[in-house]
Design a protein that fits this description.
This is Glycosyltransferase family 4 protein. GO terms for molecular function: glycosyltransferase activity. Keywords: Transferase. It is a single chain. This protein is α/β, with parallel strands linked by helices and 418 residues long. The protein contains 15 helices and 14 strands. Strands 3-4-2-1-5-6-7-8 form an eight-stranded mixed beta sheet, with helices on both faces. Strands 11-10-9-12-13-14 form a six-stranded parallel beta sheet, sandwiched between helices. The protein starts with a strand and ends with a helix.
Length: 418
């Protein structure tokens, strides 16, 4: 099968969990014998076309047009995606299925679907509603409308957790038989010692006597990083030799730095900004605890990565993290937005080496048996087969998705109440 994937991020341009997901899935689909093309952003000296483990990556060049705002930029991106897709099709022939990852590529995905008459599969990695715990302004409502539109246009929808399955049913009223739950995966070998960069030095991030609490990901409100900083003063009462290393970029960077100094722990918190993948692996393997205190998390692929690196995990009891972490078996869970609960669980790991060994052993087993990319790719290929064969949400369950004109009006009325 010839597959076209549309994704606004792909390694080495990594913003969040979407890039490693597309990277892992595409590579394993190639191993199954499929021909996979990925259209994504270019720039930063990256080649316009690249062969990544058999995946043909096509990168668009940034538009010369100046965008008034983020939405304008996304529109330009999608125009370029369509141009690139048409060019690729002329060279390699027609595609069997189009796979769109999130709303950022929805415009181009829909255009290609109707232009080519090919089935569209959409993976919804998160929703605007979930990211902000509701829709609080016109931008939120606009993005949510595009997410609904993408779900409406797709023949089949993939989500990464039961939590996301319920979210789409509840927020967008998507019929459940149109949605497939397929978890994210991880390559165990990508987080072993040989993947640590040759220039990595632990001393760049913490002193030899300091124990590292590590977070990596976007620095945005829904990731709950502020809860970790709020938990730190109490943790330091019992463990003075702690260093919190926070890796990533985002809108909360300055807020988190100011919060740490306001709480008197500024010297115990290091915000690294963006780090290379090899550095991330080094920090994960050297951390004493990986902490992911999210308010909202559709899946939480970084938790899997920490598990693959052999690092014990403490995560919020929310969303997909709740499904990954089996409390007391392969990690520990803390109550959402409760610094005292986070403190308690981190303290358990810092104080009990036997518990750490037990959790890490079980986590490694889960990574190998449940979250192998080979099995996830096979399940995704089955979804493609169903889409190509025309099998969609239609087992007799009444759908609340309306024809596009009527649906647009109803959605607008619904969202304005949010």
């Amino acid at each position: 099968m010839r597959i076209l994937m549309l994704s606004w991020e792909y390694p080495p341009k990594i913003v969040g969990g979407l890039a490693p997901h597309v990277h892992g899935l595409a590579g394993e689909l190639v191993q199954l014998g499929h021909e996979v093309h990925v259209i994504t952003q270019g720039g930063d000296g990256l080649p316009e076309e690249d062969n990544d483990r058999g995946v043909i990556v096509h990168r668009i060049q940034s538009s010369n047009l100046w965008s008034l705002d983020f939405i304008g930029y996304i529109h330009h991106l999608n125009f370029n995606f369509v141009e690139k897709a048409l060019d690729v099709q002329q060279k390699v022939g027609s595609f069997d299925v189009i796979h769109c990852h999130d709303w950022l590529a929805a415009f181009s995905a829909r255009s290609l679907k109707h232009s080519w008459g090919k089935p569209l599969v959409a993976t919804i990695h998160a929703t605007e509603w979930g990211r902000h715990n509701g829709l609080h302004n016109d931008l939120h409502r606009y993005i949510s409308q595009i997410e609904w539109w993408l779900c409406y246009e797709a023949k089949r929808i993939v989500v990464c957790s039961q939590h996301m399955y319920g979210e789409l049913e509840r927020i967008f009223q998507i019929p459940g038989d149109k949605i497939e739950v397929i978890p994210n995966g991880v390559h165990l070998q990508d987080f072993q010692a040989d993947k640590v960069g040759p220039d990595f030095q632990r001393s760049q991030f913490a002193a030899d006597h300091e124990r590292i609490l590590f977070y990596v990901g976007r620095l945005v409100w829904e990731k709950g990083i502020q809860v970790l900083i709020q938990a730190l003063p109490e943790l330091l009462i019992h463990h003075r030799n702690l260093k919190v290393v926070i890796a990533g970029t985002g809108t909360q960077m300055n807020y988190l730095r100011h919060l740490a100094y306001r709480l008197g722990v500024g010297d115990k918190v290091l915000l690294t900004g963006y780090i290379e993948e090899s550095t991330k692996v080094g920090l994960m393997r050297n951390a004493d605890v990986a902490v992911f205190p999210s308010y909202y998390e559709p899946f939480g692929i970084v938790a899997l990565e920490a598990m693959a690196a052999g690092t014990p995990v403490v995560a919020s009891d929310t969303g997909g993290l709740s499904e990954i972490i089996n409390h007391g078996h392969n990690g520990l869970k803390a109550y959402v937005n409760q610094p005292s609960s986070l403190t308690q669980q981190i303290n358990r790991l810092l104080s009990d080496p036997g518990l750490v060994d037990y959790l890490v052993h079980n986590a490694m087993q889960d990574v190998q048996e449940v979250y192998a990319w080979s099995a996830i790719a096979a399940k995704t290929a089955t979804v493609y087969d169903l889409a190509v064969e025309g099998v969609g949400g239609g087992n007799g369950k009444k759908s609340n998705i309306h024809p596009i004109e009527e649906g647009r009006k109803k959605l607008y009325q619904f969202l304005k109440k949010a």
